[in-house]
């Protein structure tokens, strides 16, 4: 894939853009699953940015990890710039520290709002008696970004491109595969083929090691807690 055409997005942004129906602007996965996948995406982004890591076995770590419980998140580095990285991502650090990935992915639901504020997508909602009962995110002024993310994701799934180092779109595909929504994102592609390819993407070096472990644990958590996943079909 031509690097000039690769999109520059975070993992949550890639998930958010890919998981929306192009025509209705509504998520292709139910609200609970969407919140969990976005939270997991935020945690993976923080690992890629060097702001979080997963503590190793007891007695093998030094410095910041020395007192951390093995397998839990540890904050490293300096706090993120809230303007450059988004306030919600830094807030997720405080929530995640000391928790294992399968617990942390259930705790934050507000990651998506900052992407709407950036103008990538619009946001419309209908309320009844003070509560929101319908939301959608139509394409915004920066539709080129959404198109670029979709094109990059398609190339990865068809094998026309391989994941790059710390590939955000590849990580997003792995998470969306966990909630079984990829066939709805790309209905023209063979279901079995993209499922197999999504598994391969997780195992490739670009998302291996600590990131691969995080993605696998996030996938398992989402699958276990949403075993009766409801796919949205409303117009």
Note down, in words, how this protein is organized.
47% of the residues lie in helices and 7% in strands. By secondary structure, it is mainly alpha-helical. The protein has one domain: yeast vps74-n-term truncation variant fold (Orthogonal Bundle). Strands 1-2 form a two-stranded antiparallel ribbon. α1 runs antiparallel to α2 and α1 packs across α7. It is globular, with a radius of gyration of 17 Å.
Summarize the helices and strands and which ones pair or pack.
Elements: H1 11-18, H2 31-48, E1 52-54, E2 73-75, H3 82-96, H4 101-104, H5 113-117, E3 124-128, E4 131-136, H6 143-158, H7 168-178, H8 182-185, H9 191-203, H10 209-225
Antiparallel strand pairs: 1-2, 3-4
Helix pairs in contact: 1-2, 1-7, 2-3, 2-7, 2-10, 7-9, 7-10
What's a quick, concise take on this entry?
The protein has helices at 11-18, 31-48, 82-96, 101-104, 113-117, 143-158, 168-178, 182-185, 191-203, 209-225; strands spanning 52-54, 73-75, 124-128, 131-136. By secondary structure, it is mainly alpha-helical.
Quick tags:
235 residues, yeast vps74-n-term truncation variant fold, two-stranded antiparallel ribbon, 47% helix, 7% strand, globular
């Amino acid at each position: 894939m031509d690097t000039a055409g690769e999109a520059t997005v975070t993992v949550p942004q890639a998930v958010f853009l890919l998981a929306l129906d192009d025509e209705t602007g509504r998520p292709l996965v139910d609200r609970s699953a969407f919140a969990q996948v976005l939270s997991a995406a935020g945690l993976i982004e923080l690992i890629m940015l060097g702001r979080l890591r997963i503590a190793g076995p007891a007695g093998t770590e030094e410095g910041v990890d020395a007192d951390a419980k093995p397998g839990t998140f540890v904050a490293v580095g300096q706090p993120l710039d809230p303007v450059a990285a988004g306030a919600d991502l830094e807030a997720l650090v405080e929530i995640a520290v000391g928790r294992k990935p399968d617990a942390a992915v259930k705790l934050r639901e507000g990651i998506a709002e900052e992407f709407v504020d950036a103008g990538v997508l619009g946001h419309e909602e209908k309320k009844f008696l003070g509560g929101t009962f319908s939301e959608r995110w139509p394409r915004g002024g920066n539709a080129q970004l959404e198109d670029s993310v979709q094109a990059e994701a398609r190339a990865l799934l068809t094998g026309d491109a391989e994941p790059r180092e710390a590939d955000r779109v590849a990580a997003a595909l792995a998470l969306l595969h966990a909630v079984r929504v990829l066939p709805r994102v790309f209905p023209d592609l063979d279901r079995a083929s993209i499922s197999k390819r999504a598994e391969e993407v997780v195992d490739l070096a670009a998302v291996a090691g600590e990131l691969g472990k995080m993605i696998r644990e996030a996938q398992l958590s989402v699958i276990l807690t949403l075993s009766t996943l409801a796919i949205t079909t409303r117009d």
